[in-house]
Amino acid sequence: MRDSKRSSALARAATIAFAVVLCLAGDSRAADSRPNFLFILVDDQSPFDLRLYNPHSILDTPNIDRLAAEGMTFDGAYHMGAFIGGVCTPSRHMIMCGRTVWHLPNSPNALAEGKCPPNLEQQTIPAVFRRAGYATMRTCKTGNSYEAANKMFEVRRDASKRGGDAETGSAWHARQVLDYLDERASSKDDRPFLIHFGFSHPHDTRMGTPELLAKYGAVNHADSNSLPPANEKQPALPIGYLPAHPFPHGHPGLRDETTVSGVWERRDERTMRNEVGRQFACSENIDIQIGHVLKRLEAMGQLENTYVIYTSDHGIAIGRHGLQGKQNLYQHTWRVPFIVRGPGIRPGSRVEGNIYLLDLLSTLCDIADVPRPETNEGISFKPVLLGQKPATRDLLYGVYNGGTKPGMRCVRQGDWKLIKYDVLEGTVRETQLFNLRENPDEYLSQHHAAEVVAMTGRSPSTSQRNLADDPRYAEKLAEMEALLLSEMRRLDDPWRLWNQPKDGLTSPPEAAPRNPRRNRANAAPAAP
Ligand SMILES: [Ca+2]
C-alpha cells in the first residue's frame, strides 16, 4: 500500500514534471515570435559624413537613408569616451556590456578597485541573448574590441577586411551574414536571431573600390612625397575644417594624427578632400552591402520582425578642427550616427534621444523582454523608440585621455557644451564653451580667418565662436564646470583637472611621466 502510494505520488510528480516541461517548451515556442536584431556597427564614421545629418554631404547611402525613412534617426547619440588611443576598444566594451567608461574590465584600476565585477563577459549582449534562447552571430574586424565578449557569440566569423575588393573589403562581412541567414534557413533554425554585423571600414587605411573611388574623385594615395591629384568630383572640405588645431591636443606622436597613410601630418586642401573622398567610397560600399542583407531579410520574410540598428563605434575628424583622428571631443567625433528601424517605430521619425552607445544592451533586453543583467548601467531608450518620450538623458559626459593626463573632458546639457583640455604636464589648459543651437559646428575664432573662409566658403556669424572668455556667459560657464565635476565624481573618473578639487584621488599608474620632453620622444603610436 505504502509502495503503491509512493509510486502513485511518483507518477503524479512525473506527470507534473512532464507538464512543466511541456509548458516550458510551449513558452519556448511562443518565444520564437520575439523580434530579431540586426546590429550594424561601422568603424570610424562621423554622423556628418551622412546626408541624413549633413545635407551638404555628397555621400550616397540609399540603404541607410531607407532605414531612416522607415525608422527613427537619433540626433543625440554619443559614445562616452576613451582612456587609450584606440578609442574603438572602450567604445566596443561599453556597447557589449552596458557599463560606463570608468567601470569596464580594461578601465584603469577598475577591476582591482572593484569598480568592475569579474567575468563580466558573461553579462554582455551575446552571452545574455544566447542564454535567453537567441541565435547569436557575429562578423566584424578583429582586434581593438572586447575579445572575451566576442567569444560569447554562438557563431563568429571575424576578420579585418580593409581592402578595396570583394574578398578583402566590406563585401566579405556581408557575405558572412548572407551565408549565415542561408544556413539558418536550410537547418530550419527558427530561434530569433541577434546578428552583430560589423564592418572593418571606413577605418583607415581607406582602400575604396576602384568604381567608388572614381565616383568621389579620390585615389588610394600612398606616396608621402607627393600630393594626391585635385579632382572636382571630390567632396568639399568638411564643415569645420581648419588647416591646424589651434593648440596641441595633448597626445604627442598619436598615430591617427601623424602616420595614417595618405594623410600623415598634412591638412592641406588636396590631401583632405582626397581623404574624405576615400572615406565616402568606403562608406558607400558599406551602404551597398547593407542593402544586400536587407534585401535578403525581406525575401525571407524576416525584415518586418527585425530591429535594424545602424551606428558607428565613434565619429572622426578627417580635417574638421584641423584634426584627423577620433581622439577629440568635438561633436563630429564624440557623436555617432544612430538609426533604428523596427516594429512599433514610426517611419521617418527623428529625435534628440540623448543616448549613449552603452544604452544598447538595456534597450535590446527591454525590447525582447529579456532580464537586464545586474551589471548593466545603461538606460533603455525603448520608450523613445516607441514615441513615448523624446529623450532618456539630459546630461552627457565625454572623455578622451589616451594621451597626456588628465586629458580632455566634456559635458553637455541642453544647448550648452563645455570642453576642457588639461594636457602636456599643465602646459595646455584650455576651456571651450559652445552654444550648440547657435553654433552646432563648434566654430572657433580660427574659423573666422579670411584664408579659412576663402578655402571653405563658410563664413561663421559673429557669435559662432568659443564663448568661454565672454563675460556674458560667466554664469553659464560656472554652471557647466559644476556639472562636469559632478559627472566626473558620479562616474568614478580617476582624474581631476587643474581647476577642480583633487578629492583625495591618487592618479592611476599610467599617468603621464613628469618630463614632457621625454614623454614626447617616447610616445608610442596609439593602436587604431
Ligand atoms: Ca573605431
From TrEMBL:
Residues 496-528 are annotated as: Disordered. One of its GO terms (molecular function) is glucuronate-2-sulfatase activity. Pfam families: Sulfatase. InterPro entries: Alkaline_phosphatase_core_sf, GAG-degrading_sulfatase, Sulfatase_N. It comes from the Bacteria. Its EC number is 3.1.6.1. Residues 1-30 form the signal peptide. Residues 35-370 form the Sulfatase N-terminal domain. It is an enzyme of class 3 (hydrolase). Keywords: Hydrolase, Signal. This is Arylsulfatase.
